[in-house]
C-alpha cells in the first residue's frame, strides 16, 4: 500500500488561494479542504513518501511568513494511502464555468450536459487545472470572450491541458501547448484524448522557447508573476500584430509592479478580469507592431 507525506495547516478562508498556490509550487500532489466554523479552513496537502516533509514544512512556513499569510496551526505526518484522489473526485461534481464551458471530472456520468455549453472532461491527476481555481476560470472566460474560431492558439504552462482543450472547442485552428513538467504533459495528452481533440493539439515539453518561432493569434499563460515577467519578451515575439494575450496567476496587489513592466512593451490594455485576489489581464498587440 502506498504511503504519503502530508502537511496540514489551518488558515483563514481569505488566504486559501494563496496558501494552495504555495503548496502547488512546492510540489503537492493533491489538496483536501475542510471548511471549519469561524471563517477558517483546514487544508491537507499530500506529498510523495520520498519527499523531505520537514524541509517542505520549513519552506512553506518561510514562504507564508514572507507573504504575510498567517498560519493558525501547522503539522506534518506520513499516512497510508486512503485513495485521496478518489475522495477529491467525489467532492467535485460537474460545474459550469463562464458562459460556454461545463467541466466534468472524468468519473462523473454528467447527464444531462447543458446544450449551450462545451463539455470538458478532466482527469487532472497530478496536474494543476481542474477548473476549480479562479485563475483557470478567468482564463476560460477570457478565451470564450476573445478567441475567435480559426485562430492559432498557444497555451504556456498547460497543466491538465484544460485551456488548450477549451481552445479547440471554440474552434481554434492550430493549438500548441507547452509545460516544463513531463508528468503534466502526459496527463494533458491523456485529457486531450478523452476530449477527442488530441489530433488538434501539439504538446511540447519545455518553456515557450522550445516551441520554435511561429506566431499565434492568441496566447494564454496561467503562471506566476515572476515567470510571466521573465517570459514576456518571448511571448511578444510569438504574438501576431493584433493578437491577444491573456495572463493570469497574478495577484491583484501585484498589478502596479506588473504595469511598470507592461509600459515597456507595445501591448494595449484590454481588460482586467478579477476573482477573489486573482486577476487575468487581457492585452492586445497593436496592429502596427
Ligand atoms: C498554475 S498551472 C496552470 C495550468 C492550466 N493552464 C490552468 O490554467 O489551470 C501552471 C503550469 O505551468 C507550468 N510551468 C511553470 N513554469 C513554466 C514555464 N516557465 N514554462 C512553461 N510551463 C511552466 C507548471 O508545470 C504548471 O503545470
What does this structure look like?
- Helix 4 runs parallel beside helix 5.
- The strands form three sheets. The chain has a seven-stranded mixed β-sheet, with helices on both faces.
- It is built from eight helices and 14 strands.
- The chain is globular, with a radius of gyration of 19 Å.
- The longest helix has 14 residues, at 53-66.
- With 289 residues, the chain is α/β, with parallel strands linked by helices.
- Residues 127-129, 136, 139, 156-159, 162-163, 178-181, 184, 207, 222-223, 227, 249 line the site of S-adenosylmethionine.
Could you outline the blueprint of secondary structure elements for this entry?
Elements: E1 3-12, H1 16-25, E2 30-35, E3 40-48, H2 53-66, E4 71-80, H3 84-91, E5 95-97, E6 101-105, E7 118-122, H4 134-146, E8 152-156, H5 162-169, E9 174-179, H6 182-194, E10 201-205, E11 216-222, H7 225-237, E12 239-251, H8 255-262, E13 267-275, E14 278-285
Parallel strand pairs: 6-7, 8-9, 8-11, 9-10, 11-12
Antiparallel strand pairs: 1-3, 1-4, 2-3, 5-6, 12-14, 13-14
Helix pairs in contact: 4-5
Bound molecules: S-adenosylmethionine.
S-adenosylmethionine binds near residues 163 and 223.
The residue-averaged pLDDT reads: 89
Distance between the termini: 58 Å
Report the major sheet.
Answer: 7 strands, mixed
**Adjacency order of strands in the biggest sheet:** 10-9-8-11-12-14-13
Question: How would you classify the helix and strand content by structural class?
Answer: alpha/beta
CATH class designation of the largest domain:
Alpha Beta
Order of helices and strands: EHEEHEHEEEHEHEHEEHEHEE
**Rg estimate, integer Å:** 19 Å
Structurally, the number of domains stands at: 2
The residue ranges in which pLDDT falls below 50 over 5 or more consecutive positions are: none
Bound small molecules, by name, code or SMILES, are: S-adenosylmethionine
Strand composition percent = 25-35%
Number of helices: 8
Architecture per CATH nomenclature, i.e. the level-2 architecture of the largest domain: 3-Layer(aba) Sandwich
Strand count: 14
CATH topology of the largest domain: Rossmann fold
Helix content: 25-40%
**General shape:** globular
CATH superfamily of the largest domain: Vaccinia Virus protein VP39
Amino acid at each position: 500500500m502506498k504511503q504519503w507525506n502530508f502537511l496540514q495547516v489551518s488558515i483563514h478562508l481569505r488566504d486559501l488561494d494563496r496558501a494552495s498556490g504555495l503548496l502547488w509550487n512546492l510540489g503537492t500532489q493533491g489538496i483536501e479542504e475542510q471548511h471549519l466554523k469561524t471563517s477558517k479552513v483546514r487544508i491537507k496537502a499530500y506529498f510523495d513518501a520520498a519527499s523531505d516533509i520537514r524541509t517542505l514544512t520549513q519552506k512553506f512556513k518561510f514562504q507564508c511568513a514572507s507573504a504575510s499569510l498567517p498560519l493558525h496551526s501547522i503539522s506534518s505526518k506520513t499516512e497510508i494511502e486512503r485513495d485521496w484522489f478518489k475522495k477529491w473526485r467525489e467532492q467535485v461534481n460537474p460545474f459550469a464555468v463562464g458562459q460556454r464551458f461545463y467541466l466534468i471530472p472524468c468519473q462523473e456520468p454528467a447527464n444531462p450536459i447543458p446544450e449551450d455549453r462545451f463539455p470538458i472532461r478532466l482527469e487532472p491527476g497530478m496536474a494543476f487545472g481542474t477548473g476549480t481555481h479562479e485563475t483557470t476560470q478567468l482564463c476560460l472566460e477570457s478565451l470564450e470572450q476573445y478567441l475567435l474560431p480559426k485562430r492559432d492558439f498557444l497555451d504556456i504552462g498547460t497543466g491538465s491541458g484544460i485551456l488548450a482543450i477549451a481552445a479547440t472547442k471554440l474552434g481554434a485552428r492550430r493549438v500548441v501547448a507547452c509545460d516544463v513538467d513531463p508528468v503534466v504533459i502526459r496527463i494533458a495528452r491523456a485529457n486531450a484524448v478523452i476530449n477527442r481533440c488530441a489530433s488538434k493539439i501539439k504538446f511540447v515539453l519545455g518553456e515557450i522557447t522550445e516551441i520554435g518561432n511561429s506566431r499565434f493569434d492568441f496566447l494564454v499563460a496561467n503562471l506566476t508573476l515572476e515567470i510571466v515577467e521573465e517570459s514576456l519578451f518571448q511571448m511578444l515575439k510569438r504574438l501576431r500584430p493584433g493578437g491577444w494575450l491573456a495572463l493570469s496567476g497574478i495577484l491583484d496587489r501585484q498589478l502596479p509592479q506588473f504595469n511598470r513592466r507592461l509600459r515597456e512593451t507595445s501591448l494595449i490594455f484590454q481588460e482586467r478580469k478579477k476573482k477573489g485576489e486573482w486577476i487575468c489581464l487581457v492585452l492586445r498587440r497593436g496592429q502596427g507592431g
